Amino acid sequence: MTTTDQALVRNRRRNYRLTIFWMMLPAILGLAMFQYGPLVVAVRNGFFDMTLLNPERAKFIGWANYIKMAQDARFWQSLRNTAIYSGGKVLLELPFALILAVLSQQAIKGIGIVRTAVFAPTVTAMSTMAVIWNMMYHPQNGLFNSILTGVGIPPQPFLTSASQAMASILVLSLWKDVGSSMLILLGGLQAIPEEFYEASSIDGAGPWEQTRYITLPLLRRTLLYAMVLLTVTSFKVFTPIYVMTKGGPLGVTRTTVYYVYELGFKYLQMGYASAVSVILMIVMIVVAMLQNRLLRTEFEY
Amino acid sequence: MAALEVEGRDLDQMARAVPRKQPRSLRRIVASVFLVLIMIVVTVGMLLPYEWMFTSAFKTDGEIFRYAYPISWKTFWPPNPTLENFVKVFRDWKFGRNLMNSVIAALAQMSGTVVISSLAAFALTRMKWKGSNLVFGIIMLVALVPFEVIMVPLYVVVRSLRLTRNFLVLFVPWIASPFGIFQLRQAFAEIPRDFDEAALIEGASPFQIFWNVILPNTKSSLVTLSLMSFLWSWNAFMWPLIAMQDVTKQVIQVAIATFTLPYQLPEWGAIFAGATLGTLPVLILFVLLQRYYVRSALMSGLKG
Description:
By secondary structure, chain A is an all-alpha fold. Chain A contains 13 helices and two strands, in the order H-E-E-H-H-H-H-H-H-H-H-H-H-H-H. Chain A has helices at about 5-45, 65-70, 75-105, 110-125, 125-135, 145-150, 165-190, 195-200, 205-220, 220-235, 240-245, 255-265, 270-295, and strands at about 50, 60. The two termini of chain B are about 15 Å apart. Chain B has helices spanning about 10-15, 25-55, 60-65, 75, 85-90, 95-125, 130-140, 145-160, 180-190, 195-200, 205-215, 220-235, 240-245, 250-255, 270-290, 290-304. Helix content of chain B is about 70%, strand content about 0%. The relative contact order of chain B is 0.14. The radius of gyration of chain B is 24 Å and the shape is globular. The interface between A and B is large, with 119 and 111 residues.
């Protein structure tokens, strides 16, 4: 090899590296600035007493924010509300999603319309749908109470009542999200080999037996996967709370993310808000890991 | 993951008839009537909020309240349709501005995400360098961090950059997307390596391979990512609510939601009209691009 050849190779290598550098740079820069940076800052701020108005005058206070949290009744209430919401969401949405997935697998005329109708709410914005549902739930002029009184049931207070507010929000988010869960389960149903159904049909199994002994056991992994996803997303609920109840009445719909929002942007307690969000993240990771242990199953087909 | 295996398949191909030979008995007829009934109930239930929203947008406030009780066809249909509400949202509420802001922000976020993700995905899949797997791992780690956890410090970041009255704040923080990189990395990895090598022999540079070989062969993934990032941006609420402090640059979703307050009775007709304007475009997009939407829904399911 002559020296010019070596120079050429070196040059090409340098260009190759430069191409990689420039291709990766925007992604890395963006993520570092807007995702990793703030995450590090969130963890750091959790140890400071600072307000949003002048974050420069922050004071290091060690674990004080975390100690305060342990004694903060509102924080514990928000965790409980989040757990109620997430538990309710999983228990409501998975069965509905499964029924809809099985239903939409049937080859019946018009099933495409049903599928489109179930998916539609997943495309439209939660904020706007919460505005509409807020009006549907309106005690005096809402659609639900028109329908209820139409069939002879007394009007309900819905969002204005401490006992019905969370349930009302759950029904909205079931309507909004059931399509996504259904889609995941539909994916799982597709993966079950056709022959299983054919063979069991020959053996005389009806639809009920097939659901019980083929579909459900083989869908276990997908169901658990859908459950983990659903739990993690439920932990982050904010928009319907902000639009419909602002955490009320009596704080029964104040979820942890809504509490973080209040702390940060209403009370301007940035340090404390960051500490609460760090704990929220840890709780989410722990719950996801616990559910993931359930996911680990030897069963394959 | 089993769920991903439906990727790219048409919704209608997903329906599968389980062949069962049964006589046309009374039981079977009852069962199918029951099934059709369930289908109707589900469809009506899912579409009812939209129906109420669309039709009430053409009623006056007085009519909306008057026809709430007793329930009749007038609850679900405007007896004297009027465009008054739409005039009001455009004239008094300046919704045209909010709509434009949403369109521009969503298009900007969409193109930014597609460009940045495809460049990074190419470098990660088609170029050999030490540490590429490690870098990908670090990128994906961020996908586990929910936005809600970093929102307060992120707000401080954009404020210190003096962006809270700048249009850029709506989309710049989100264009570098771990999900976009993940999705395109999967798609790029599926293209056979022979394609690159053939181009390399002809003396193509990596960027030429990217542009002439990889991109044309991953069109459907690029469309899916575009649709997904457009919808994320269009439907975003919490971030624009927090970060955008100039009402003239606010997006449509925040504009719709901030006109209602809990337990109050604002101008319902105008809200219905505004909500219709914010919802109709995505519903139309959805119906037109349903095939791509199925993929994107699965991906955003992964997003969590």
